[in-house]
Write a structure and sequence with these properties.
Blueprint lengths: L1 H4 L13 E2 L21 H11 L4 E3 L6 H18 L2 E7 L7 H12 L10 E7 L4 E6 L9 H15 L5 H20 L7 H7 L11 E2 L6 E2 L2 E2 L2 E2 L1 H4 L8 H14 L11 H8 L5 H11 L4 E6 L2 E6 L8 E6 L2 E4 L1 H7 E5 L5 E3 L5 H5 L4 E4 L2 E4 L14
Parallel strand pairs: 2-3, 3-4
Antiparallel strand pairs: 1-14, 4-5, 6-9, 7-8, 10-11, 11-12, 12-13, 14-15, 16-17
Helix pairs in contact: 3-6, 5-6, 9-11
C-alpha cells in the first residue's frame, strides 16, 4: 500500500530529478529548478522572491525544530518544481485582535503564495497557536484542486487531531503528504471523492470490521504516533481468507476503523513485525483509504502468491499476497521492500524488487517505462509534470 511504504527510510537522488521520499523522513538535498518565467519579471518579481526567501514554512511561534523546518521547505520546493503549486505554512503565536479571516488575507498580500496574478497557484495555511485554529486561503488557480469538502476534511479531521494535541511535526508531515497527493490527483483530472468521508464517519458501511475496535486512551498518544487496539472479538474478524480479494476487503475495513493494531492475521507475521515498528496515526489511515477507495484493480494468482495492481489510477502501487496453510494473507513487508515512492518525475512509484518470490513469479508483468519499472496491464499514465511534457 502506498501509505505504509512512506514510512521506510529516505533515499534521495537528483538523477533525472527523481527523488524517493517518505512521509516520516525527508531528504537533505534539493535539485528543484525555479524558472523566473513562471512569475514574471521586474520589481514585482523581486518582491515576490523576497517573500519566498522566507521559506514555505514560516514559524513565528517557535513550534517546530529548525531541522524539521529545513526538511519541510525542501519537500515543498520539490512539490513546487513538480506541479507549480506553491504551498505555504505560517504559524503565529496569536493574531493580535484581528479575525483569523482578516489576518489571513493580510498575510496573503504580504507573502504572495503562488505569484502575483489572478491565476495564482498558491495555498496559504495559517495556524493561530493561541486559538488552535487553522485558516486556509486558496489561490484562484487552485480552486478546482482544493474543494470545500477536502479543505473541511483537513481542518476538521486532521489539524484538530494533530495540531491541537501538540504533535505539530507529525501532523505537518502528514498534512503535506495529503496535499501533495491531492495535487497529483487534480493534475490527472480526478475530482475529490467525498464518498470516502462517509466511510470515515460511518465505518459500518463496509463488511463490519470497523465496528470491533476499542477507543484509544490519551496515554496512547505518544511520540511514536497514535496507537489503537482491536478487541479479541475484532481480531477474529481479521483472519486469513479464502481469496486475496477477501483479504483486501478486510484490509479496507481495517483502514476505515482507524485503529492501528497490526497484530491481526490478515497480515503475514513478517508484516506484523515490520508494521509494529512504524509511527502511525488515525488520520493517515484515512489518507491511505482515500488513495484506494473506489479504485479498480486486478488480482493475479500464481501458485501460492498473488499480485494486485490498479488499472484506473497510476498512483496506487501494487499489493502482494501469500497463501499459507491458514489461508491468504497480505504481505505488507514485501510492499515496503519491493516498491519505491518518487517525486519530481512522471510516476509516483516504481517496482524495486530483486530476486524474491514475487519478482521471480511475476517477472513477465514488469515493464520498463522511462527508467521506471511498472506493472504491465496496470494504469501507467504519466503525470503531467512541469518540465517533463
Amino acid at each position: 500500500m502506498v501509505g505504509i511504504k512512506f514510512f521506510r527510510r529516505l533515499f534521495a537522488s537528483c538523477n533525472q530529478r527523481l527523488i524517493i521520499l517518505t512521509a516520516f523522513a525527508l531528504a537533505s538535498v534539493s535539485c528543484a529548478l525555479f524558472p523566473s518565467s513562471v512569475y514574471g519579471d521586474g520589481l514585482a518579481f523581486s518582491n515576490f522572491i523576497q517573500a519566498r526567501d522566507r521559506g514555505h514554512v514560516i514559524d513565528e511561534a517557535g513550534l517546530l525544530p529548525r531541522q524539521s523546518i529545513a526538511k519541510f521547505n525542501q519537500y515543498l520546493e520539490w512539490i513546487f518544481s513538480e506541479s507549480d503549486v506553491d504551498i505555504r505554512f505560517l504559524f503565529v503565536p496569536d493574531i493580535a485582535g484581528q479575525t483569523i479571516e482578516e489576518f489571513a488575507v493580510d498575510k496573503v498580500e504580504e507573502l504572495r503564495p503562488g505569484g502575483l496574478g489572478k491565476e495564482a497557484r498558491g495555498l496559504l495555511l495559517l495556524y493561530d497557536v493561541q486559538a488552535k485554529r487553522l485558516r486556509v486561503e486558496v489561490g484562484y488557480g487552485l480552486e478546482g484542486y482544493f474543494t470545500d469538502a477536502f479543505l473541511s476534511y483537513l481542518t476538521d479531521e486532521h489539524t484538530r487531531v494533530f495540531f491541537a494535541s501538540g504533535n505539530i511535526t507529525t501532523g505537518l508531515r502528514l498534512l503535506i503528504r495529503m496535499l501533495h497527493h491531492r495535487i497529483r490527483e487534480a493534475k490527472l483530472g480526478n475530482d475529490f471523492d467525498p464518498r470516502v468521508l462517509e466511510l470515515i464517519h460511518n465505518p459500518g458501511y463496509l463488511s463490519g470490521g470497523g465496528g470491533v475496535t476499542e477507543a484509544m486512551s490519551s496515554e496512547d498518544r505518544g511520540g511514536a504516533g497514535f496507537r489503537g487496539k482491536i478487541s479479541n472479538t475484532g481480531k477474529q474478524v481479521y483472519t486469513p481468507q479464502s481469496t486475496p480479494k477477501a483479504v483486501y476487503e478486510k484490509y479496507l475495513d481495517w483502514l476505515v476503523a482507524g485503529s492501528f493494531d497490526p497484530k491481526i492475521d490478515i497480515f503475514t507475521r513478517e508484516s506484523q513485525a515490520r508494521m509494529a515498528r512504524l509511527p502511525i496515526s488515525p488520520a493517515y489511515f484515512h489518507y491511505i483509504l482515500m488513495m484506494e477507495y473506489g479504485k479498480t484493480s486486478t488480482i493475479e494468482i500464481r501458485n501460492d502468491v498473488a499480485l494486485q495492481y490498479f488499472t484506473d489510477d497510476p498512483m496506487a502501487s501494487p499489493h502482494f499476497y501469500r497463501k499459507t496453510d491458514r489461508g491468504w494473507q497480505m504481505d505488507i513487508a514485501a510492499e515496503i521492500r519491493d516498491t519505491r515512492n518518487r517525486v519530481g518525475g512522471v510516476f509516483t512509484w516504481d517496482y524495486g524488487g530483486n530476486d524474491d518470490i514475487y519478482t521471480r513469479t511475476f517477472v513477465d508483468k514488469l515493464v520498463n517505462i522511462k527508467n521506471y519499472i511498472r506493472i504491465r496491464g496496470g494504469d501507467n499514465r504519466e503525470l503531467p509534470v512541469r518540465g517533463h511534457n
